[in-house]
Amino acid sequence: MSSWSDPQPDSRFVAVDGLRVHYKRAGHGPALVLLHGSGSSLHHFTEVADLLSSSFDVVRPDLPGFGLTGPRGDRDYRVQTYAATVARFLDVLGLTRYALAGNSLGGNIAWNVALEQRSQVGALVLVNATGYPEKTLPAGMRLARNPLLRPLLRRAMPRRVVERNLRTAVGPRSTIVDDVMVERAYQLMSRRGNRSAFVDLVNTDQPDRSGLIPRITAPTLVLRSACIDGQHFTRDIPGARELVHPDAGHLLPEEEPRWVGDAVEAFLGSQVDEAQWRQGGRQ
């Protein structure tokens, strides 16, 4: 591939909230939506999507500010705004019922969608998700909050910084961070407006909505790496199940795609309400 910054053969685009949202869709069956985290793109779930597309209609968008979707004109990167955009994106696609899975920021967005769109979200999977105020910030986000570095990062984010951030985000035994992964992340972060969008996101004042988490009614699976701290979804969501990976880091779906894919497939297949949320997918 000559450039990660260009559309791929399976790229699709749809207009939502003044954005040209980039997404990929593959498979048949009940709808499953995968939301990546900050500083990432839909490629984060590529292997998981490949594993699950034989059983599900898998939809992966580039969230606003990332990948080929690019920045919001209004620079509004509040999680609730993300959640509203994701809900409208899925409505444009004609999905009326779906399972929703998200990693990190994507998990935060996912549980906020589940709060606001209860009749649409038939199942929820939170992968190293965020949303509690005591969450430890990754090094890259701490840099982007530095008032002296912010203007510099808007103009350029060196490839070595991107690589260092990726290496600190995986477990100590992981070998997934290679030249291809680094180049992909670097090219997508370097697309026009994406660096500034990342800085804007990191410096956005996010209201604490963690007190609403016990109101989530969708059946929920929590997938967590043992090193991830400060999150209490299993405690706070009634009936939530949890699986903990002992070795992976923050990028669990890329580090252990088979573990994640098997867990998601087993969980969704076990849902009593499965027949209802299947109505949203392609047959």
Keywords:
283 residues; alpha/beta; eight-stranded mixed β-sheet; 12 helices; 8 strands
Helix content: 25-40%
Structural class, by secondary structure, is alpha/beta
What's the story with the biggest beta sheet?
A: 8 strands, mixed
Note the overall shape: globular
Helix run count: 12
**Lateral arrangement of strands in the main beta sheet:** 1-2-4-3-5-6-7-8
Describe what you observe in this structure.
With 283 residues, the chain is of the alpha/beta class. Helices cover 35% and strands 17% of the residues. The protein is built from twelve helices and eight strands. The protein has helices at 46-52, 79-92, 105-116, 139-144, 150-155, 159-168, 179-189, 194-202, 233-236, 252-255, 257-269, 274-277, and strands spanning 12-16, 19-26, 31-35, 57-61, 98-103, 121-127, 220-225, 241-245. It has an eight-stranded mixed beta sheet, with helices on both faces. The protein starts with 11 loop residues before the first strand and ends in a 6-residue tail after the last helix. 47% of the residues are buried.
Brief write-up:
The protein is of the alpha/beta class.
Write the layout of secondary structure elements.
Blueprint: E1 12-16, E2 19-26, E3 31-35, H1 46-52, E4 57-61, H2 79-92, E5 98-103, H3 105-116, E6 121-127, H4 139-144, H5 150-155, H6 159-168, H7 179-189, H8 194-202, E7 220-225, H9 233-236, E8 241-245, H10 252-255, H11 257-269, H12 274-277
Parallel strand pairs: 3-4, 3-5, 5-6, 6-7, 7-8
Antiparallel strand pairs: 1-2, 2-4
